[in-house]
Amino acid sequence: MKASDFDRQFDAGEDITALLDLDKARRPGCEPRRVNVDFPAWMVQSLDREARRLGVTRQALIKLWLADKLQQHQSSAQ
Q1: CA distance linking residue 46 with residue 51, whole number of Å
Q2: CA distance linking residue 59 with residue 51, whole number of Å
Q3: Spatial distance between the Cα atoms of 17 and 41, rounded to a whole number of angstroms
Q4: What is the DSSP letter of 20?
């Protein structure tokens, strides 16, 4: 299929999911990147306590809190 035909079907609101390889689909800018951050022991203990309380991993808790803070910052900057 030509890209122009694909674009036309998409623009017309037709269902194009059968034409996609969803196993290889990626969201641009959402690729994971590893970063290393050193925290003091008391902070790790506090993070672990809160993560256990919420039933999530420490990494998930940090991601949630950072995403929330960044979203608040972006909202206030506009």
Answers
A1: 8
A2: 9
A3: 48
A4: S
Dig out the tokens for 11 from the structure. 């623009």
Q: What is the pLDDT of residues 12-64, one digit of tens each?
A: 999 999 998 888 888 888 888 899 999 999 999 999 999 999 999 999 999 99
CB atoms within 10 A of CB 70: 10
Query: What is the pTM (predicted TM-score) of this model?
Result: 0.62
Note the pLDDT of residue 58.
Answer: 97
Distance in angstroms (rounded) separating the CA atoms of residues 63 and 54: 14
The single-letter DSSP state of residue 12 is: T
* Measured distance CA(54)–CA(64) in Å, rounded: 12
> What span, in angstroms and rounded, lies between the C-alpha atoms of 62 and 44?
10
